[in-house]
Amino acid sequence: MRKRRQYRxxxxxxxxxxxxTLAIGMIFISGTFLTGIHFSTISTERTIAAxxxxxxxxxxxxxGNADTGWLSGLSTTSCVDFNxxxxxxxxxxxxxxxxxxxxxTEKHYCWSAxxxxxxxxxxxxxxxxxxxxxxxxxxxTQYRSPVDPLNLSIWYPRLVTxxxxxxxxxxxxxxxxxxxxxxxxxxxxxxxxxxxxxxxLERYASPDNNMIRLDRPLPAGxxxxxxxxxxxxxxxxxxxxxxxxIEVYQRLIKF
Length: 255
Description:
- The chain is α+β, with helices and mostly antiparallel strands.
- It has two helices and 13 strands.
- The chain has helices at 12-66, 82-85, and strands at residues 80-81, 97-98, 109-117, 126-135, 143-144, 153-154, 160-167, 172-175, 188-191, 197-203, 211-214, 226-233, 245-254.
- Strand 5 and strand 6 form a beta hairpin.
């Protein structure tokens, strides 16, 4: 008489160990997919930002050439928001949004431009134009108004000025009271007097939450000399949220 074979299965411990190993592997794989999606989104936004920037520079040139009288209102020692100097040729807010073929509520990108003459000869009307490209992160999201950023809000991101102070030749700045949350890690700012672009590496935590560190020293006259001035920035949405600014571009345009 033959003996019955005994088939040995997996124990509960082995099954649990296999499931745990599979779960850990899936976590790493899903993390890779999420990282890929994140970088793909960033790449797509930067590609679109380059297109929006070209359109923005073209509009600044076109509307700026419509009447050269607006140049006389600019100062060589400070930047001026193009949205504020276009009173000679009033622009609809729709002109600052992208894509142009969409309705106002469907536009997901917008731009703001700073203008500063860099010429000494009136016949050589060379203007430094700095364009901020931003995304609108939600249909009902509100952003700070340049007129009164602490109390008023608008539907699309706009540039605002923030007072800062520091020491010449240093890369640490202190933000004015009440606007500490307007600038954060990874933000891009433009110094008002020179139009130089800086990257914020870090905003320190409390109690120094109004102190930021830049990617390079701020040239402000003599080294180790107290300095104060203004910087331009796209602040976060009202109530907080994702940083709307995607990229900042700068060109010299002759009018």
